[in-house]
Hints:
By secondary structure, the chain is of the alpha/beta class.
Amino acid sequence: MTEQMKRKQYETIILTEVPDLSTENSDSKQILALVNLANESGGVVIVFTNAPVWNQLQRQGMTIKIDLPNEEEMYSIIKEYIDDYRNEIPIEWDNTDIREAAATLNGVTRIEAENVIAALIANKRIRKSDMDEVRFAKDRLFSDISGLEKIEVDDSVKDVGGLEGLRKWLDEKKELLTPEKKDELRSKGLQPPRGILLVGVPGCGKSLSAKSISANWKLPLYRLDFATVQGSYVGQSEQQLKDALTTAENVSPCILWIDEIEKGLSGATGGAGDGGVSTRMVGQFLFWMQECKKQVFVVATANDVSMLPSELLRRGRFDELFFVDLPTADERRDILSLYMRKYLNLEFSGEFADKVVEISDGFTGADLESTVRDLAYRSIANANFILSEENIVTAFNNVVPLSQTSPEKIEAIRDWG
Length: 417
């Protein structure tokens, strides 16, 4: 290429498959020499790459970033593709459905989006229910992603016993995710809901709530573990967190679940010998939450609020902060009714229900589920075991709940709430 540039004036060379140009190495130096030669001969060197470019090489020219289609562009791509077939096959989708598909396919390339729609058209019909297939296709495209763990959820986690205030708040915010409401939010300069922070007693449904939100909102669930993005080299943790958050934007719309966030950010509260890494990660995460324009709903959970940096708790960081306490009598009745029906196929009511609710005072939601689940195991394993009221009451009397095994810890959490 160098000889070719030397022999001809105003030569244009286009490089589409290039080696690693991110650092000062023999390949990047060779490209730099070619660029300098092009400057002398009036030529042009065009490099296509999706990787970083060595700074010295980058300064010799102009960088043009080609972004993925945004939601409006994706809407136009899908609408144009579908409209070509409206006179050939039955298509049930209207503009609202196309906008929903555009929001779902946000973060993929034009070719990938067209392939998804082409697969639907190949069935000789596009139904309303095909929106589920669009979601599955998006999941398949991002099945191998770095920094995030895909959590599979099903309809069995839709119902969560208790947590009435949280459920009511989520039902209200779910209405803002429709295409019409999102357009109205956009016209008023408002962002969709950004996320919630769930703080409280371990085992009371915080993690289960993240899965329930995913199932009810029909959005994929991804788990971000701050511990896994922390590296051993200077700047590595910040870069890996940035990559993980960028990935979350690419797979949006989605639920981003950060379980026990205090364990990953506890160094920011002081006393940690990490060279300020945790403090920088907190700042980076909060800045991303404030500036993220994609539909990524964050569900962060924490057991020990004393380990959380104060700036994370400030009003406006999350849309809402919920304290999840030990379930009340009514909430225990709700939870027990759910699991008795699910695991034992029993209706939970009457004096028997009152008695179990009373003796389960101080139980967490996890304690309640574990006890009912153990009864289900025993009834399946032993054909002679009878699910009598006496055996059920005995099972609950034999449980030592978390509130009794770690009373000081639980009381400290409840005092904060």
